[in-house]
# Entry
Amino acid sequence: MGRSISRAFVGIKNKVRLKLQGWKGNMFSQGGREILLKAVALAIPSYAMSYFKIPTKLCSEITKESLFHKAYAVRYFSDGNLLIASLGGNPSYAWRGIWEAKNLLVQGGRWNVGDGSLIHILNDAWIPGFQNLRQELGDEQSMEQLCQLDNQVLSLIDPGTKWWDLAKVKALFNPNVVDVVIRLHPNHTGAID
# Structure
């Protein structure tokens, strides 16, 4: 495979793109577009996936370029965030299933801190072992300090070092939470959450 695994799989991405561009997706019904994507576009990388682990970045790129993602993003999560998407009015059968599964994921999942821009400090689960952070605030001053912050985890990360601003974290949370937070590693490359 060599040094660049991503370059080795560029052909798969190009084949998927060419196959999807060759079809007139707007001529199909909602169900037809779903079948097209599942049957044709997802079959292309199957052989390679049976032998190699496809890079996560490539899977993400193929998904975002797909007709399925574009159609659902426009109709149901135009802000780009599937995790906060609503059911919407008159949802398709497929979207209703995705939305229900998404809710299960949100209930049992936890955010992985990247740049902190998508994670709300108190409303999202991002610290292992702590689901209700309002109970874990250090003292009355913490709530006042929280109001001064952006309310996103990004506001707890020092922009220069791309590491936790320990003064803010210690001022906001009790020592048990602080110990867990400083063990989390924000993504220093600026990757999103």
Summary: The beta strands are 157-158, 163-164. The chain has a mean pLDDT of 75. Residues 110-193 form one domain.
